[in-house]
Amino acid sequence: MRVGVTRELRAGERRVAATPETVQQLASLGLDVIVEKGAGVESGYSDAAYQEAGATIAAKLALGTLDVLVHVRPLSPATAKALKKGAVTIGLASPSTELPTISALASGKVTAFALELIPRISRAQSMDALSSQALVSGYRAVIEAVMRYPRFFPLYMTAAGTIPPAKVLVLGAGVAGLQAIGTAKRLGARVSANDIRAASADEVRSMGGTFINLDLDTAAEGTGGYAKELAEDRAKRQRDLLAPHIAASDVLITTAAIPGRAAPLLVTTDMVKGMRAGSVVIDLAAESGGNVEGVVAGKDTPVPVAGGTVTLVGLQDAPSAIPSDASRLYAKNVANLLALMTAEGTVSPDYSDEVVAGACLTRDGTVVHEPTAQALA
Ligand code: NAD
C-alpha cells in the first residue's frame, strides 16, 4: 500500500510527519512510502536521507493514488477532496475548528484519524502527539523567556558580587508545564507552580518545583487526566490568590488548558502590572485565547510598569521552532499508530481496538467523533 508524506503548506510550519527513521519502520511493515520533495528540509531531513531509508521522492504527491496520507497540520478541504474513497489520513485534525475539511473527508469516504483524539491510556502513550509536542513547547517556552530576560537564571556568587537566581512561576503543570519546570530548574532558576488538578502537586515536586497550594476547595479533575473548567467565582478566587505569587516572580509561564474550551483566563493586566520591570511572561495558551489578558499570539507586547516594561509573549507554533526533534517524536507517534493498523503490508483498522476507534474522526462517509458530528449538524 502507498503511504504519502506531505510537505506542510501552512506558513511557519516546519515539521514533517515522517523521518528517515520512521520511513524504515513503515517499509519494514511492507508499506511503500512516497515523500513529497523537500517535505523534511526545514526539519533537517533531506530527500536523499529519505531515499536511503527506502522512500520514493515525488515532485508532488498524486493524492488520488494514495492509500494513506500522513500530515502534521490539518489538511485543506482541497487536499481532502483529492483523496480517493477508502484512503486513510493520520495527523493533527483540529476537530473543533476545521469543519470544512472534516466534512470533505466524510463525504469523500476517507477514513481520518485525528491524533488529538488518541485516548490517554498507557498503551497509547507512544502515539500521543499532544504529549510529545507539549514537551517541546514547554522546553521552548523557557528558552524564549531566557532570551528576553535581562538577568541570569542561575545563582552566581562571584568576586564582583552575588547574583540571585531567577524566580520562575509556571501555571498549568500538565505535560508542557512540567517540562518548563524541569528546563527552568536545569538552568538554575528557583521554580514554583500551580495547577488545579490535585495529582499535579506530586508531579511538580518530582520535577524539582515547589507546588503552590491555593486551597481552592474544589475538585477540578475531569476525565482522561484533564482538568475541568472552574466556575467563575472559583476562577476569580484563583486569580486573587495567585496575584502575590505572580508579583513575586521574574518569569511567568502559563500553559493552562481545558480540552475543547478556550484557555482559562488566569492573569489580568493588573496582575502583570504588579511584576517588576524586566520581567517576562510567556503564554503558551495564546493560540487558544490566552491565559493572560491582552496577549497576542505570535507577538511580544510590552506592558508598561514602574521603571520600564514587562514583556508579554504570545508563543505561537512553539514545536515548529525545534522542528527536527519535534518531527522526530511526532513521526514516531504517527508510525506507531499506523503500525497498530497494519498487518502484512495492508492497512486495515480494527475498530474493536479502543485506540483505533477512539482516534477515528471520519469513516464510511460519517463523522464518527460525536462532538464534531454535532458541530457539523
Ligand atoms: P492540558 O494541555 O489540557 O492542560 C494543561 C494543564 O493546565 C493541565 O495540567 C490542567 O490541569 C491545567 N489547568 C487547567 N485549568 C487550570 C487553571 N485554572 N489553573 C491552573 N492550571 C489549570 O493537559 P495535558 O498537559 O495535555 O495533560 C494533563 C494531564 O493528563 C497530564 O499531566 C497527565 O497527568 C495526563 N496525561 C496522561 C496521559 C496518558 O496516560 N497517556 C498522557 C498525557 C497526559
UniProtKB/TrEMBL annotation:
Domain Alanine dehydrogenase/pyridine nucleotide transhydrogenase N-terminal: 4-137
InterPro entries per UniProt: Ala_DH/PNT_CS2 (IPR008143), AlaDH/PNT_N (IPR007886), AlaDH/PNT_NAD(H)-bd (IPR007698), NAD(P)-bd_dom_sf (IPR036291)
A Pfam entry, by short name: AlaDh_PNT_C
Top-rank taxon: Bacteria
Reaction equation(s) it catalyzes: NAD(+) + NADPH + H(+)(in) = NADH + NADP(+) + H(+)(out)
Domain Alanine dehydrogenase/pyridine nucleotide transhydrogenase NAD(H)-binding: 146-314
The protein's Enzyme Commission number: 7.1.1.1
SMART domains tied to this protein: AlaDh_PNT_C, AlaDh_PNT_N
The entry's keywords: NAD, NADP, Nucleotide-binding, Translocase
Enzyme superclass (EC): translocase
Record PANTHER family: NAD(P) TRANSHYDROGENASE, PROTON-TRANSLOCATING NAD(P)(+) TRANSHYDROGENASE
Family that this chain belongs to: Belongs to the AlaDH/PNT family.
Task of the protein: The transhydrogenation between NADH and NADP is coupled to respiration and ATP hydrolysis and functions as a proton pump across the membrane.
Protein name per UniProt: proton-translocating NAD(P)(+) transhydrogenase
Species in which this protein is naturally found: Leifsonella bigeumensis
